[in-house]
Write a structure and sequence with these properties.
Layout lengths: L1 E10 L2 E11 L3 E5 L6 H8 L7 E6 L2 E3 L3 H6 L1 E4 L11 H11 L4 H14 L15 H13 L5 E5 L7 H18 L2 E5 L3 H7 L2 E6 L2 E7 H4 L6 E7 L3 H9 L3 E4 L5 E4 L6 H14 L3 E7 L4 H11 L1 H6 L20 E2 L3
Parallel strand pairs: 3-8, 3-9, 6-7, 7-8
Antiparallel strand pairs: 1-2, 1-4, 4-5, 9-10, 11-13, 11-14, 12-13, 14-15
Helix pairs in contact: 3-4, 3-5, 4-5
The chain binds adenosine-5'-triphosphate.
Pfam family, one: ABC_tran
EC number: 3.6.3.-
Protein name: Putative ABC transporter ATP-binding protein YxlF
Length: about 325
């Protein structure tokens, strides 16, 4: 979808982007980085809204930056800041964006209604946008970005200001667009669980330099394949049993066991051995799944190997994490409650 390299952007003395090269495959890509790391500048440069001093490549098969206007027609952009025209009601606002994208009036209005239905904007579409809540404004921006049916969406903090239900619905829409409608999506966000729940690949920027870029599945692989096992009651007997069987066992903060070695055993044997050892030690397994590196850990690892990353984000406070993601996004088995 995007293959650009050698992108440099300076604002006066500030190097906002230094020799940036990104290759974005179809799917959902998370763009992560601390404040001031260059995320917005990269997005704006891609869209030709700021002019980079150097850089070339292709976006959606078109030469970049030479054909940036053609590229812009093919991209839906949800900016971080509010964007609406005062005095218009929601439906007029979205239909106007359709018109700006070249759709005839009738088709633009039909698309605007269709997309507002998809975004779950009901009767509110007939109200003036200035009166919208933050959540409604995010949905409106999303509808505006989507109305001309672009193959590539660039979403800058689309879940900011949404309550948990709205956030869940927004992420589900992003998933649907990617999975069922073949859209490619770049999601710039600080919210790690959002990235872990919808992204196929991740780009981490710090200090205007790309520090990490790969598929999430590859980045989240642990050096040693490991199972995450939580039990009801004391995990020590099961831990001792696993160690006596040659596994490497450690305990997480919440008392779960990380068992390295089990994953190398065949899938069927692995499950039966785990259950067998649990039975022998009178341990009830509550849940088990393949352990994955969290995004926070991926970033910490990047910081360990690259001092610039550590300098740029020494306290990782820009990352909004949640404990539920610390041991992997998708449990493969859950037993009991
Ligand atoms: N118009 C501008 N003039 C001067 N410096 C700028 C301008 N826009 C951005 N910068 C600087 O460029 C660097 C990258 O900024 P950018 O907004 O791209 O980062 P960001 O990762 O999007 O940050 P945030 O997460 O806070 O939006 C920062 O040092 C910023 O201060």
């Amino acid at each position: 979808m995007i293959d650009i390299s050698g992108v440099n952007k300076r604002y006066g003395d500030v190097n906002a982007l230094t020799d940036v090269a990104i290759a974005v495959a179809p799917g959902v890509t998370g763009l992560l980085g601390p404040n001031g790391s260059g995320k917005s500048t990269l997005i704006k440069a891609l869209l030709g809204l700021v002019k980079s001093q150097s850089g070339s490549g292709t976006v959606l098969g078109h030469p970049w930056p030479a054909k940036v206007r053609t590229i812009r027609d093919l991209v839906g952009y949800l900016p971080e800041d509010d964007c609406y025209i005062a005095g218009l009601v929601g439906i007029e606002s979205v239909a106007f964006m359709a018109k700006l994208s070249g759709l005839p009036d009738t088709e633009g209005l039909r698309r605007a209604h269709e997309i507002m239905d998809f975004c779950d904007i009901g009767e509110e579409r007939y109200r003036e946008v200035e009166g919208y809540s933050t959540g409604m404004r995010q949905k409106l921006k999303f509808a505006q970005a989507l109305v001309h049916d672009p193959p590539l969406l660039i979403l800058d903090e689309p879940t900011t200001g949404l309550d948990p239900d709205q956030r869940h619905a927004m992420l589900s829409r992003i998933r649907t667009l990617s999975r069922d409608h073949g859209k490619s999506i770049i999601l710039s966000t600080h919210i790690l669980p959002d990235v872990q729940s919808v992204c196929d690949q991740v780009i981490i920027l710090a200090g205007g330099i790309v520090r990490v870029q790969d598929k999430l599945a590859v980045l989240s692989e642990l050096e040693k394949p490991t199972m995450h096992v939580s039990v009801l009651g004391d995990p020590a007997p099961l831990a001792a049993k696993c160690e006596s069987e040659g596994m490497e066992v450690s305990t997480t903060d919440d008392g779960s066991l990380l068992i390295a070695g089990l994953v190398t055993i065949d899938q069927g044997d692995r499950t039966s051995k785990l259950w067998q050892w649990a039975a022998e030690t009178d341990t009830s397994i509550r849940r088990y799944h393949r352990a994955k590196k969290s995004l926070e850990q991926i970033f910490v690892d990047a910081a360990l190997t690259d001092p610039h990353v550590a300098n740029e984000a020494s306290d990782l406070s820009f990352l909004q994490s949640s404990t539920s993601t610390s041991s992997g996004p998708s449990p493969d088995k859950s037993v009991g409650a």
